[in-house]
Amino acid sequence: MIDVERTFVVNKPVDVVVNYLKDFKHAEEWDPGTKSCVQQSPGPVQVGTTWHNVSVLKGKETELTYRLAELSDEHILLVGENKTATSRDDLTVKPTNGGSTITYHANVEFHGLAKLVGTILLKSEFDELGDKAAEQMTRAINAL
């Protein structure tokens, strides 16, 4: 299992941040590993909405179906799944002077054979992606 957590501050209020982050198509703007992310389910973004996500890790593409699992005024949980892994993007947004503090916790649990080697091979890559995601998310949100 891989766990990465970053906490950082942006200059937008909580409602603007949550509204932006709940729509996972925006991962193309803030997640350095995301190549594409397209909403699959029709209608407005709400709990249960799904996206087809294509990410690149160590030069290889992987596809996951992400679902908005939880949504509240200050919390977003997105869960992505495929045959080899379950990924959880857990975001908490709290008000800060003139903006918001975001805590981004990414957790990846590998399945089957990937469980044996995935953590060892990808831990440093995910740590680096966590740093880049915090930087890119800060830039994207501050530019809203």
Keywords:
144 residues; alpha+beta; Alpha-D-Glucose-1,6-Bisphosphate, Chain A, domain 4; seven-stranded antiparallel sheet; 30% helix; 47% strand
How would you describe what is shown here?
- The chain is α+β, with helices and mostly antiparallel strands and 144 residues long.
- It has one domain: 2-Layer Sandwich (Alpha-D-Glucose-1,6-Bisphosphate, Chain A, domain 4).
- Helices cover 30% and strands 47% of the residues.
- It is built from three helices and seven strands; from the N terminus they run βααββββββα.
- It has helices at residues 14-22, 27-30, 113-142, and strands at residues 2-10, 34-39, 50-57, 60-72, 75-81, 85-96, 99-110.
- A seven-stranded antiparallel beta sheet has the order 1-7-6-5-4-3-2.
- A hairpin with a 2-residue loop joins β3 and β4.
- The longest helix is centred in the last third of the chain and has 30 residues, at 113-142.
- It is globular.
